Amino acid sequence: MKNNFSYFLEEKEKLSFFTFPKLRNIDSIVYGFTTKHWTKKALIENFNLKNFSIISLKQIHSDKFHFLKEVYSKRLVGDALITTIPNILLTVKTADCLPILIFDDKKRTVAIVHVGWKGTIKKITKKVVQVIIDSLGIKPFSLFALLGPCICSKCYEVGEEVKESWKKEWGVFDYLLYPSIKKGKYHFDLRKANLFQLKELGLRQEKIFNINLCTKSNSKLFYSYRREPTNEGRMIAFIGLKNI
């Protein structure tokens, strides 16, 4: 499946973030994938988000998600958020896991997903998109999906427990989980496994955008749990509807 890789690294106040030039005409959405050193305060100031309610999650590597129909004061638990309400900024934090932004600018719907191997096996991406399709009557071909930086398959080694869980839920799919040269280890392609779910639901390839950069390999831009397990730094992915 071919996808759009034409991303752009922009900078504000010496802080950099990724956007996609082809989406610049869509002015009803605010979105981005940050690099290192961003804070909630920097996000609000640099993107003029003072009128937005910032929603974050206690992320638990699950298939649990929330469809927000109001602003919640308490911190929600799960790994994905959906809303049709303007001035709510959905956020997730990552340091090797894959952040995915999903939206339909015409039907005014946005969603965000944090996904690692556990969420991928449980197909959280597919479940979130399916809810958007079923509950809002949105056609899959009208949805955009933006995939941020994550660890690449070459750097992402997992063990036998992942292989067994994978086979139980997915079957074979050897091109997504394949043996390493190390005994009992396997390379897991996080990005392709989630792209597969999007394709399976009928999203159009011209509306799927990728930042195909490895978080572990690019230490100047990204935090990486696999590279620095004691570093608590995280990148922020965010998306919201503007009140227009």
* CATH first level: Alpha Beta
Strand order of the largest sheet: 1-2-3-17-9-4
Number of domains: 1
Q: C-alpha Rg, in Å?
A: 17 Å
Enumerate the spans where pLDDT stays under 50 for 5 or more consecutive residues.
Answer: none
Total DSSP helices: 5
Briefly note the CATH topology name.
Answer: CNF1/YfiH-like putative cysteine hydrolases
Q: What is the first-to-last residue Cα distance?
A: 35 Å
Compressed to H and E, one letter per element, the order equals EEEHEEEEEEEEHHEEHEEHEE
CATH architecture: 4-Layer Sandwich
Number of E-state strands = 17
CATH homologous superfamily heading: CNF1/YfiH-like putative cysteine hydrolases
Provide mean pLDDT, rounded: 94
Shape descriptor: globular
- Beta-strand proportion: 25-35%
Note the quaternary state here: single chain
Structural class given helices, strands, pairing?
alpha+beta
Biggest sheet overview: 6 strands, mixed
Helix content class = 10-25%
